[in-house]
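=== Per-residue structure ===
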Amino acid sequence: MGPSSRTILTATLVVLSTLRSITFAADEGWVPLFDGKTLDGWKVRGGFATYKVEDGAIVGSTAVESPNTFLCKGDYKDFELELEVKCDPALNSGIQVRSHVYGKDDPDPNNRQRAGVVYGPQFEIARKDTGTAAQVYDEGRRGKWLNEIKPEAKDAFKDDDWNHYRIVVQGDRYRSWINGIAASDFTDPMDDHGFIGLQVHGIAKDQGPFQVRWRNVRIRELSADEAAAPKPPEGFRAIFNGRDLTGWEGSPSYWSAEDGCLTGKADGTLKFNRFITWREGLVKNFELRVKVKVSPTGNSGLQYRGTERPDLGESVVTGYQCDVVANRPDYNGMLYEERGRRILAHTGEQVVIDTQGQPWVTGTFPLKDFPAGEWHDYRVLVEGNHHRHWIDGHPTVDLIDLDEKGRKLEGVLAVQVHVGPPMKIQYRDFFLKTLPDDLTLIPPDKAPIPADAPKVAAQGQDKPRAVDSK
């Protein structure tokens, strides 16, 4: 949802001269949780750390030997939450969501003994070198991390500075961004509602005092069927809005917007592969990031620099493809050329395609398995004639294409449903970054092929490669 022309008052009206607050646009549905002046509507739970308002921010201060303390408000189910936080580097803090407090009348006697203790999912606030900021911990209950943080977010936290957190909780899905960088994305069915809480962590008597500050705290409740608008990383734009197929063209027999995802389905009767094509431009040099989930029998692909071929059938696109293959690890993430040179690089291969169009294996990566039916982060980076693919931060392909006749430097972007067994493919958080058009092509003398390099095994002649041991 785009910003309106009006702006709301920010939670920070008076700041230190060296700091600037961020003014949020008055988007429809947003409600401030903190008015910048008082703690009206908030309640302290868990411990005896203190909270006050100072310079338009909530300031939490440690108390020696206090257990973890939380400033709590509301009861929320599905929502989008944004705030800024600044924390002393020596202090650990967090943002509770869908949280609760144990009561004296709890049916579990163990929980009755913990009456007054706050429990529930917590988005971590911690100094940069921990690499855990915006990761999610189950506070006061299971006592463990609920997810792995994305590698690119591990150093996103800024010590001794304000940090912007965005949290989206909907259904059983939890997501977070820190300073615009996606950090967490996982599912957990345990809680479906609860309060928001701002934590001051307990300290020992020989530590502190420390402080943590919050400002510009606002929330937007989501309906059960409303998708939170995807927010891209810096420099990227969202090319799928999470609601409908605006900007895309493909047959509604196969493609729809479902559960906030670009969804493709095939019933097993396809005679040829079908595509849905992005209609808002061509891609040349770019970086693409997207979350992908494929069914156990599924086969799909991210088509780029493609050519539309209506002469071959409805919604046919040829060209480069980052494969999405459920049941063969050495195909999942490979570089394939649809209706062209076919397999250019298996997953786990570094490849140079010579000037005559022959691909040669010049190096390898460890081969990993990325289970079907789960969400995985796919990344495609194409610069001139240099192509690279990743899944969940792990490199799958690194290829240099020296074949001037066979290669293509610009074309359409599309995604695929494949012939074969019934399948379902879903894409979400679809982000594109356009790179300069004039990037230098790698010449043959800069991409040597070792004399002992093997040829890339042709399709039909390639034996499945075993996953490397961890």
